Amino acid sequence: MTFRALRGVLSEGDRRTLVELAALLVMALLAGAYFVLRPGGLWAETDTGSMSQAIRVVTNNAELAPQTVDAYYNGYGYQVVSMAIVAFTGLSIQALQQDVFPLISALLVLPAWALYRELTGSARIATLAVLLLVLVPEYLFAVLRGSHERLDRAFLLTALWLLVRSVRSRDDPFMHRAHMALVLLMSWGLIATNALFGMSLVVALVSALILSWVARRIRPNLRPFATDSVRIFGWSSAASAVLVVVFVVFIYPPILPTLRELGSIPARLINLILTGGGGFDPYAGILAAWVSPLAYLALSMVDFILLISSALVWLWFAVRWLRGGRPESFGIWALWLFYAAFAAQGAASIAIDRTGSLAANVQYRAFAVFATVAAPMVAVALSRWRPGPRIKKLALTSAAIAVAAASVGALVKSTLDPNVSNKWIFYTASEFEGLVWVQVHLPNTPTWIGPDDRLQAAYEITIGGLSHSDVWDMDEPDRGTASFLISGEIREQITRLDETLPDLEATNIVYDNGDVQLYRLRQPAT
């Protein structure tokens, strides 16, 4: 069918929707392209490095659950999908992780829009919600880097969309069963990719179930919607919980260390409460990671606005319904429940991070998921604003300026731009050349490579993990470290962080490519 013929069969609203979706896809694609091109294609960070190595481990061992220290402990889905793409296309793991996946992430616009359309009943609100979502830097960073989170988000958004949509198919037994089966399939995909995110979904469904049950008992005006939500969240939470148990007990043994760490969290929390303080401070390095507190606050403004405004909208709905009002649709009711469920997990993550468990970054990951339900909550409120003609024109102009500014801020923060950030994800070709030289000429030699794991991640993405006897030393040099890789970028980062370089007084330069030098401690005379 030609484009002209397609236009003839589509309504004006459908054509407008297609244009809006295309614009969102282009916007997301440009964000991915910027993420790749800003560091010239040479970027690396912790999760991207570890997941690149996990893909190699699955490939080399030809096993979904290899019993090695380099395996990814929490699931195999991302590794399998990546391995399949590499096998079918001939791409290297480095090219896939650094160049291709950030662009593919643009496709997440589609399941997000479908979910928001189902929740709000409006294509225009869905478009606005997706626009708000891609302005959140934490969401962009989570899905653009080489992490399992882009696949997690695809499974999560699709599962929730099918779950809410299943309510509309109750009168068609075949379609209803098909929706139920697909919900479980998407849930399994999420669990197999990252069991922790799968557990998060189960907890969210159980939370929504409890809220629905309470609402059905105490608020007659909410009973019709609450009855429907009790039904769908009841079977979906129970079935998903069974899938989690099957996965962690029978399918994926490498997850056992993670389960043991999860099991230790209650005892750590109790200890923190009884001791009246202490614990890990997850906020200690936040401001140090940016050139100034003002820069951090400016780049995080969208986060704060989204958090506060969505909470106010959620409370407005709650007060309205407590006074006897009713939700406009089941989708709005489900959105309210999802928001409460994921907000509760965000609150719980604050306490979890205080224990230092799970790398103490649960809040960061929880917020990126929370943003997916906060964005449509704010979009619903904005859609109900009806300004006069004069105010409307001013509001549209102001909104365009705000979106442009927020887009720039989201790109700057999500790429950890070195102009404002002290925690970088870029590296240089000279630095990587130095890493390779060290491993070729000084194997089994502990080597200091800077104040963070930037260069270690670059090595893992491009070549792979080291043998267990090789050590990349970072931050404060260990006593046994005899070699120090120094570049102009490392010197600049050390200065930015107000730290000091290792003492190089008793060293010789054994390698110099013009931009990078390797200093090695002089051996005592024998």
* Strand residue percentage: under 5%
Mean pLDDT: 92
What kind of sheet is the major sheet? Answer: 5 strands, mixed
Rg from alpha-carbon coordinates = 25 Å
Number of helical stretches of at least 4 residues: 21
Structural class: mainly alpha
Order of helices and strands: HHHHHHHHHHHHHHHHHHHEHEEHEE
Helix content: 55-70%
Number of strands: 5
Overall morphology: globular
What are the low-pLDDT stretches, counting only 5+ consecutive residues below 50? Answer: none
Strand order of the largest sheet: 2-1-3-5-4
Number of domains: 2
- Terminal Cα span: 84 Å
Q: How does this structure look, described?
A:
- By secondary structure, the chain is mainly alpha-helical.
- Strand 4 and strand 5 form a beta hairpin.
- Helix 8 crosses helix 18, helix 9 packs antiparallel against helix 10 and helix 11 packs across helix 16.
- The longest helix is centred in the middle third of the chain and has 29 residues.
- The protein is globular, with a radius of gyration of 25 Å.
- The N and C termini lie far apart (84 Å).
- The mean pLDDT is 92.
Question: Summary?
Answer:
This protein has 526 residues and is mainly alpha-helical. The chain has 21 helices and five strands. Strands 2-1-3-5-4 form a five-stranded mixed beta sheet.
SSE topology:
Blueprint: H1 3-9, H2 12-37, H3 46-61, H4 77-89, H5 93-104, H6 109-120, H7 123-133, H8 137-144, H9 149-165, H10 173-193, H11 195-218, H12 223-251, H13 256-275, H14 293-299, H15 301-322, H16 330-354, H17 362-383, H18 389-414, H19 429-441, E1 447-448, H20 454-462, E2 472-473, E3 483-487, H21 488-496, E4 507-512, E5 516-521
Parallel strand pairs: 1-2, 1-3
Antiparallel strand pairs: 3-5, 4-5
